[in-house]
Amino acid sequence: MVEEGAYWIAWAQISGVGPVLLRRLQQHFGTLATAWNATKVELGEVEGFGFQTLEKVVQQRSRLHPEQLFTKHRQENSHFWTPADADYPRLLLETPSPPPILYYRGEVELQENLGQKPMVGIVGTRQPSEYGIRWTRQISTALAKNGFTVVSGMAEGIDTESHSAAMKAGGRTIAVLGTGVDVIYPHKNRDLYKQILTAGLVVSEYPTKTPPDRTHFPRRNRIIAGLSRAILVMEAPVKSGALITATYANEFGRDVYALPGRVDDHPSQGCLKLLNQGASFILKELDELLTMLGAIPQIDAAEASTAPEQLIPTLSSELQTVMDAFASEVLPFDLIVQQTGMTAGAVSGALLQLELMGFVSQLPGMRYQKS
Fold first, then answer.
1. In whole angstroms, what is the distance from residue 351 CA to residue 361 CA?
2. Considering its fold, how many domains does the chain have in total?
3. Residues 201 and 79: beta-carbon distance below 8 Å
4. Cα separations in angstroms, 27 against 34, 89, 98
5. Of 17, 18, 97, 180, which residue has the fewest beta carbons closer than 10 angstroms?
6. Cα–Cα nearest to 332, from 220, 225, 200, 230
7. Does residue 91 lie in a domain region?
């Protein structure tokens, strides 16, 4: 039996069928294997499959053999995930356009993939001022020391500073590339690249040996936003690619923060625009930022063992299912949905009732904990 992952790879080879259409195919048919064997009429029922796209599918599908393609792909690319794999990053999978193939190199940490370790994206200009560099280093260091994984794009400037500072603080970092995971760009970051492989992960939706292309970098920004629970824009002109990342973050329901600057500073114009549109301020008190991002003090083990157990009255089966998903730790909304097996709407309604009853409380970033 051909693995479902093979069909993700096969569908990705068909021109005109990108990540958004693949997501719709999966949602419509349940699996891409079923979609692969669907008729032209059945495929036409999926939103976005117009006449030209259907013609391409019919012509190209007959020449592709998923199992053979999967074997060949595995030989040429040693490490990759498809959405059919359990290790595929959970937060990214919940976006409207998850990459059909996500290549990686480095040290995988399963907690990150499962959404159990918070990841924060840091983006900004390739030509930061001393002010931008200083705050990027301070914030990346604070995040790393408080258990966050820093996500960025390994470009010059803000990206480089965020990766470097996180690793110097002993933390993990993830670089999302616009090239193959074996292609270092810019080349001056070759030492940084090697360090990331030992203290984090390099990921890309492009296969090995893919060279840099200017069309790749705006697209990879959606992956930075998709992996992260929040995006921090440190310094960005109005036309900066960092604003593209912030736009994706808004679309994906992520929190967006921006570093304020002077109104006459060119590198700060994009940040000021974001703040005017409702982004949260990055202020001098980093403890406040960490709290907003979900960093909470650890409960002392002795204290936890003596804490009285809260008595919960009889709840409906739906509410009890949601309560059973909670341990002592904070849980993000998407993980509660995954653990309960309920729809997002049902979970949202149950959480609201439990919050009104005083049994759970909501934290910033759509996180919940027992009250």
1. 9
2. 3
3. no
4. 11, 18, 13
5. 18
6. 230
7. no
Q: Which residues of the chain, if any, have pLDDT below 70?
A: 1, 295-316, 327-329, 345, 356-357, 364-366, 371
Same domain for 122 and 203? yes
Query: CB burial class (10 A; 0-12, 13-18, 19+) of residue 306?
Result: exposed
Do 141 and 290 contact (CB within 8 A), yes or no? no
In the DSSP assignment, the letter for residue 350 is H
Structure tokens at 74: 């595995």
For 362, the domain range is 301-370
Q: Do 192 and 45 sit in the same domain of this protein?
A: no
- The rounded distance, in Å, linking the Cα atoms of 124 and 244 is 11
Centre a 10 Å sphere on the Cβ of residue 266 and count the other Cβ atoms it contains: 14
* Tokens found for residue 205: 């939706």
| Same structural domain, 171 and 48 | no
The span from the CA of 286 to the CA of 259, in Å, is 12
Q: Which tens digit of pLDDT belongs to each residue from 126-167? A: 999 999 999 999 999 999 999 999 999 999 999 999 999 999
Question: Residues 164, 191: contact at Cβ < 8 Å?
Answer: no
Tell me the per-residue pLDDT of 312-324, one tens digit each, with 9 for 90 and over.
Answer: 445 667 777 777 7
| Cis preceding linkage at 332, omega within 30 | no
**Can you give the pTM of this predicted structure?**
0.78
- Exposed, middle or buried, 33 (CB in 10 Å: 0-12/13-18/19+)? buried
Residue 211's SS3 state is coil
Return the SS3 of 216: helix
3-class DSSP state for residue 44? Answer: coil
Q: In what order do the strands lie in the sheet with 255-258?
A: 80-81, 102-106, 200-204, 173-176, 149-152, 119-123, 230-233, 255-258, 280-281
- Whether residues 184 and 208 share a domain: the answer is yes
